[in-house]
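Structure Section — protein described below
Tokens — whole-number codes for backbone shape
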Amino acid sequence: MEIMRYDDIIILNCTENMNEGKTYAYFSSLPKLFDGDRPPYDFAVKADDDIYFRLPRLIESLKKMPREDLYYGFAIPCDSMDPFHEYMSGMGYLLSWDLVEWISTSEVAKNNAAGPEDMMTGKWLREGKKGKNRYNTKYAMYDYPIPEPIDACSHEFVPDIIAVHRLKDNLKWARTLKYLNVTDSLKPSSI
């Protein structure tokens, strides 16, 4: 139904997997889907299905970002603020369209498709000397607040949230949406 109504779903020519090349298949297939002289988008995002993006905050943050050679996300390791140290967390990261086009033709990316997808993306950019414009979204992107955080990837809700990750159950989704006032104007369900 989503495809029929909005034509906004891409079905990849690969089996579902986490670390066997799905992210490479996604990024490398995007440029082939769009013909034309001008790139159709400024950015492409890879995001987990348990993350909530506040799109207006994301858009506002991106307004001041360069449109080329951009690698944007939550820098790993969790306690690092340096976006050049390792890579962006697989919870959700963004690449400028020129990097997506580069991935689609890069032997570096093609030959390093399998492995932890977020680490591989960082490796592609390091080895290809790409992603010179890097932006760390800490502390506006993070893991859902848990009572005793395992690491610096999780902290309490903050007003300038761009994204919250690890929304693994309905209660976490509900608490996140309530904090952000997303559901205030909705009529409660009778179920």
